[in-house]
Write a structure and sequence with these properties.
With about 400 residues, the chain is an alpha/beta fold. An eight-stranded mixed sheet has the order 1-2-4-3-5-6-7-8. Strand 3, helix 4 and strand 4 form a beta-alpha-beta unit. The longest helix is centred in the last third of the chain and has 19 residues. The radius of gyration is 21 Å and the shape is globular.
Length: about 400
């Protein structure tokens, strides 16, 4: 495949940026937050004013610098099964005698390939911690960023897994490791289940099992934690009451995106302030639920505002918010559920990294019916839903520890 014509695929015309400046210059007409409220009611409007001001007056004037930063890794685009698929392809510049392993690195919502910019250099640079260095292929999921969305229904995680597997084959990799969280976890585990001949190993920072038996196990685990969990991990699993309270509070977005994605998409499309509030609110509460008590949502405790706005800009300049949200509808429709993909066992060596502030955790007890070859299971007392951005070194160390175990077992 000739990549040479696609290096500028992420460039956007200056007219798009000028139009964004115009929109951000419009007077904000926001209601003041209630007294004593941080992010408990959603994005704090006082802090949103600060975000918009920074975006307009500091970030956009240096857009050429940010665009150059986003181009720091090689970007390509190819057509697979009628869809234009964008991906970053980063080969190690030095190997120092290490074994080079292909890695399919998958993001989720409301993230993008921007999640991996701090993580990728760790993967592609040889070091004393590992015998391995990685050739990273990090695609934008179909409908996200610079990857084209489907024009027809019934295009869910299974169909995406097929496309991404075909991308790896096209790049010459018939065997590869998969890593992902959020949608990257669902699509990555699907690929490992459906294509065992291609999956060398599977690692996730959000291991889940959607089979019905999992919910029975979840109840048993909460009632009798001593039988199913190591004592040191009990506090990673809240009571059933706390679990369902969090479910009700945090999963409203999922319900609307799974039922009416085009409605919420229409409210956010070409609406930069609304788009930023909708996306960045998740980077607050999904990083640490306690951040919702803070007036600034704790957004810059773990991220720079430039990094957060890079991610928002990817959605904005590609008009991909609606197409990204449609994946929820395709995941939960009856056709996808009828496939019962969660009943297909995953034979590849599996590693599950659990970060303290992830919305929920699945135990090995819940996972073992599907992930029949768990070789690595860890608990980290820090971090949330976006560890590649939050704690890239911690995620890398966990991943490397897993790879060493997985390859030793399969040797």
């Amino acid at each position: 495949m000739d990549h040479s014509d696609h290096i500028n695929t992420i460039h956007r015309e200056s007219s798009v940026i000028e139009d964004l400046k115009t929109q951000l210059n419009r007077p904000l007409k926001l209601h003041s937050p209630l007294e004593g409220i941080g992010f408990e009611y959603g994005f704090n409007s006082k802090y949103l004013e600060k975000v918009v001001k920074y975006w307009r007056d500091t970030y956009l004037p240096k857009w050429s610098e940010r665009e150059k930063y986003l181009k720091k890794f090689p970007h390509f685009q190819t057509e697979i099964q009628g869809l234009k698929i964008h991906f970053m392809h980063i080969k190690p510049k030095k190997t120092d005698g290490k074994k080079v392993v292909p890695l399919l690195l998958l993001h989720g919502w409301p993230g993008s390939v921007r999640e991996f910019y701090e993580f990728i250099p760790l993967l592609t640079t040889p070091n004393a911690k590992s015998d391995y260095v990685f050739e990273v292929i990090a695609p934008s999921l179909p409908g996200y960023g610079w990857s084209q969305g489907a024009a027809k229904t019934k295009f869910g995680p299974v169909q995406i897994a097929v496309i991404l597997r075909n991308l790896m084959l096209r790049l010459g990799h018939d065997k590869f490791v998969i890593q992902g969280g959020d949608w990257g976890s669902i699509i990555g585990s699907t690929a490992a289940a459906v294509f065992p001949e291609n999956a060398l190993a599977y690692h996730s920072n959000m291991c889940i099992n959607g089979a019905p038996v999992n919910y029975i196990k979840m109840v048993l685990m909460h009632i009798f934690p001593g039988f199913f969990l190591h004592k040191a991990h009990h506090d990673f699993y809240p009571s059933l009451g706390q679990f369902f309270s969090t479910l009700m509070e945090e999963m409203g977005y999922c319900h609307i995106q799974a039922t009416k994605p085009d409605t919420i998409g229409a409210t956010l499309l070409h609406n930069p302030v609304g788009l930023a509030a909708y996306i960045l609110e998740k980077f607050s509460t999904w990083t640490n639920a306690d951040y919702k008590k803070l007036a600034d949502g704790g957004l810059t405790k773990r991220y720079t505002m430039d990094a957060l706005l890079d991610n928002v800009m990817i959605y904005y300049v590609t008009n991909s918010i609606t197409t990204s949200q449609r994946l929820y509808a395709e995941m939960f429709n009856k056709e996808n559920q009828a496939l019962q993909i969660d009943r297909v066992p995953i034979k590849a060596p599996t590693g599950c990294a659990r970060f303290r502030h992830e919305l929920s955790h699945s135990s090995d007890f819940q996972l073992k019916d599907r992930f029949i070859n768990i070789v690595h299971s860890t608990y980290h007392n820090d971090g949330g839903h976006f560890p590649a951005m939050e704690l890239p070194q911690v995620l890398y160390d966990d991943f490397i520890e897993f790879v060493e175990k997985a390859f030793k077992k399969t040797a």
